[in-house]
Every structure is written in structure tokens, then in C-alpha cells.
Amino acid sequence: MGQNEQCQPCSKGTFREGLMSVCQRCQIGFTTKKEGSLNSKECNQINCPPGYFTNNKLINEEINLNFEFLQICLPCPIGYYENEYGSNKCKKCPEGYITKQLGAKNIFECDQVWDGSCKPDQPEPCPNGSECIQIRGEIFECRKIIVEFLNNEQNIREQRIKRFWFPLILGIICVIIIGILFLFFILNRKKCLLFFHQYFSCCGKITLDNLNNNNFTRNDLPIFTTPQPLQNIINQVFLL
């Protein structure tokens, strides 16, 4: 160390143990909690590099240096990337694009136009949690089986309602309405005939069989209940 040089603590993610001349970096996937670490045991914080994310199954377990890197850090699946350290999940590629392989480190690796095809021999062949399904021969596609099944069931159910139940229910309602109107007409026949004759003269004429009152319009011919002389009848007709 020169005369004007000063000691600086090891930066976070490094340590200096014993007579080491320089700070040593923690093994990949780990970092220190703070600066100035004195030995490798202080490298006990998970810090997955870009392209990987933390295995959430190990969050509540005691971490030690005996863990393999791929036990604590998992590569981003196809269709995802991660450009930062210590991430718990990877970022999704833009819609319609996927990565060529696992462990993408930035968005520029999302350069593959996704046509829905997949390779079943890859660890994570499909994005978004879908499954690689054999369509025919050597052709495989990523499909969300459960979601598609539920959507198909819902579409079939809606079509059944539109084609069968809706017309049936509408027909039953119409029959009930017609029945109520018919029953009302039967129970109030005289009032209905009077109403139609009063406002719709074309519907028919009132007779003594369906009217029991003395209310007549000016256009009605007089109704005689007792015999009268012919001259009186003629006079009454011309006086109207």
C-alpha cells in the first residue's frame, strides 16, 4: 500500500479473508448482506444473476453454500427474460414473441416470432404455463388445455340457450299472457264488447243479449221494447 493510499471495505457481494490481497467475489447466485465482509460465510444472501430467478421453494429454508447454483436460481423459461440481479420472477416477452432458449438476459433476446409451435424435449417448451401437445406426426403446439376446454363448454352452453331454451321460454311467456287475456275477456265479456263497440265501431253491433243499460250513441238505431205505431217509428228515425 502506498503512502497516500487508504483501505476501503470490500463492496457488497465480495469478501476478504485472512491474508488475501484483494476482495474475492461470492460464488455465483450469492451475495453478502453488507459491505466489508470478512469471509465466505457471509455470502449467504441469494442473488441470482440476469437470466435467472430465485427458486421460491427455498425462500423459507436455511441457505448454505452447499446448494448448487441451479438449485437456488432457475433459468427464465422460453418467452421470458430477466435483466437484473436478485429477481424473484422473470419478465414476459412482448406479445407474439418468444426467446430462442432458456435464460434470456434482456428484451432483445425476445426475437423469435411465436407461431404456437414447441419442442417437447426442452425443459420449458411453452410460455404462460401452457402445455406442449402433439398435434400430428412431429408437429407440437403450446395449448392451454384447461382454459380451452372451459371456453368450449361455455360456448356450447350459450349456443344451447340461444337455440332452444330462449325460444321455449319466450313461447311459454306468450302462452301465459294469451291465457290471462282470454280469461279476463271471458269474465268481463259484456264490458269488453261495450268498450270495443264504443271505440271501434267496425268490431260489431250491440244487441240486447250483451248490453243491459240505456247508454246509446247518436248513430245507433233506437231499440223498441214494446210495439209502437209505424208513424211514430218513422218520426223518431228522422228526428235523430
Automatic annotation (TrEMBL):
<keyword id="KW-1133">Transmembrane helix</keyword>
<feature type="transmembrane region" description="Helical">
    <location>
        <begin position="164"/>
        <end position="187"/>
    </location>
</feature>
<keyword id="KW-0472">Membrane</keyword>
<keyword id="KW-0812">Transmembrane</keyword>
<protein>
    <recommendedName>
        <fullName>Tyrosine-protein kinase ephrin type A/B receptor-like domain-containing protein</fullName>
    </recommendedName>
</protein>
<feature type="domain" description="Tyrosine-protein kinase ephrin type A/B receptor-like">
    <location>
        <begin position="72"/>
        <end position="110"/>
    </location>
</feature>
<dbReference type="Pfam" id="PF07699">
    <property type="entry name" value="Ephrin_rec_like"/>
</dbReference>
<dbReference type="InterPro" id="IPR009030">
    <property type="entry name" value="Growth_fac_rcpt_cys_sf"/>
</dbReference>
<dbReference type="InterPro" id="IPR011641">
    <property type="entry name" value="Tyr-kin_ephrin_A/B_rcpt-like"/>
</dbReference>
<feature type="domain" description="Tyrosine-protein kinase ephrin type A/B receptor-like">
    <location>
        <begin position="4"/>
        <end position="43"/>
    </location>
</feature>
